[in-house]
Write a structure and sequence with these properties.
mainly alpha, two-stranded parallel sheet, 8 helices, 2 strands, about 70% helix
Length: about 325
């Protein structure tokens, strides 16, 4: 009976962690809908109320978009409380890294909620909007950490090398792109460059103005990420790393390619909301895939240690690098 109870607790946590992670990605996409439809102040500057009422007027679409975004966040918060309780029950005696990761995710969620309220109160300043999105990405990373910590158990390990550092660099550039993209949107530079891939006919629009420079900086960061992803794919295959990592880097490349195409369509379609929403969603998926690669690499190389001793918990496994 005790063994059955012990194994059921991690399973509940794993289901909750996966659910909250998927919903967090969906919330990021929903946040993009809020931004591209200019619904950030749909509830005026009221928080947590919307225009002074609990429910917005039926004929105010922007208010409903903002209100539903808040309601979605509350749902994730409630599930997160259940996830935290499950983590305490399952991991307080062993595999405490998962418990600590869950606590960090909870703190990031509360900070994210505070930033959301502050963004509304301060009339959507671009810097705060960027920090708000960056915190959401860190929250997603923390949730992925807890999920992998509960399910991943490498069969073998290997030493760190230059590929490990390339993974760190690629993941960092991915986050940089998301942050610069938020600055492009929040700073009003979305349509500063009306063509693609050039910016109003120039590759380096330094004399056109600061908005054009911000826009093109974002594009060049995207190009840099593409180069890093291609190199990472080559090195992961060449070094014989586990098949899980090969699948994840291919997923990251696919999401990146789609993101780049959608980004171009977003500009050429004069910032159509659909393309803007897809652009942010694909960026979040690219980030998630790279974070997963980084966490798996950290476990395989011994940077991270998870105490996963019950094989029945582990749908993921690693493999040894060839000598």
């Amino acid at each position: 009976m005790a063994k059955q109870s012990l194994s059921q607790r991690p399973r509940l946590f794993i289901r909750l962690a996966l659910t909250v992670t998927v919903l967090t990605i969906a919330l990021v996409v929903f946040g993009a809908v809020v931004r591209v439809t200019d619904s950030g102040l749909g509830c005026n500057r009221d928080w947590p109320l919307c225009g002074g009422t609990v429910f917005p007027p039926l004929d105010n679409l922007t208010a409903w978009i903002e209100w539903l975004h808040r309601l979605f966040a509350i749902l994730i918060g409630l599930l997160g409380v259940g996830m935290l309780v499950a983590a305490v029950r399952a991991f307080r005696q062993r595999n405490r890294a998962v418990l600590y990761g869950t606590v960090i995710a909870a703190v990031l969620f509360l900070f994210q909620a505070f930033l959301g309220a502050l963004v509304v109160k301060l009339d959507l300043p671009p810097t705060m909007v960027t920090i708000h999105l960056g915190t959401a990405m860190l929250l997603l990373a923390a949730l992925l950490f807890t999920y992998i910590g509960a399910v991943y158990h490498p069969a073998m390990s290997y030493g760190r090398d230059h590929v490990s550092w390339l993974m760190f660099a690629t993941t960092g550039v991915s986050l940089l792109i998301i942050l610069t993209g938020a600055l492009v949107r929040g700073g009003g530079a979305t349509l500063a460059c009306m063509d693609w891939p050039l910016c109003n006919g120039e590759a380096f629009p330094f004399e056109q103005g600061p908005l054009q420079v911000v826009h093109m900086t974002h594009r060049y960061a995207v190009v840099a990420l593409g180069v890093l992803l291609a190199l990472l794919l080559w090195y992961i295959i060449r070094s014989g790393r586990p098949s899980l990592m090969r699948k994840l880097i291919v997923a990251a490349l696919v999401c990146y390619g789609l993101q780049a195409v959608v980004g171009a369509l977003f500009v050429l379609a004069a910032a159509a909301p659909l393309w803007g929403t897809l652009h942010v969603g694909l960026a979040a998926l690219t980030w998630a895939a790279l974070v997963l690669i980084l966490i798996v690499e950290a476990v395989n190389t011994g940077w991270l240690k998870f105490d996963n001793r019950e094989a029945e918990w582990h749908p993921l496994s690693g493999s040894k690098l060839p000598s």
